[in-house]
Amino acid sequence: MNHKNTLSNPVTLIHTFMAMLVAALGVGLAGCATTSELPPQITRDLGELRAQLLQGKAQVQTTCNAARDLTQRPQAQMEPQVATLVRDIAALGDLATNHRQQFTTAEERADAYFAHWDKQMSQLSADLAEKGRERRVESMESFAELRARTQELKKEFRPFMLSLLEVSRYLQTDTTAAGVQVVTPRIKAALKYENAIMEKIDADIAQIDAMRGGK
Question: Structurally, how many domains does the chain consist of?
Answer without folding.
Answer: 1
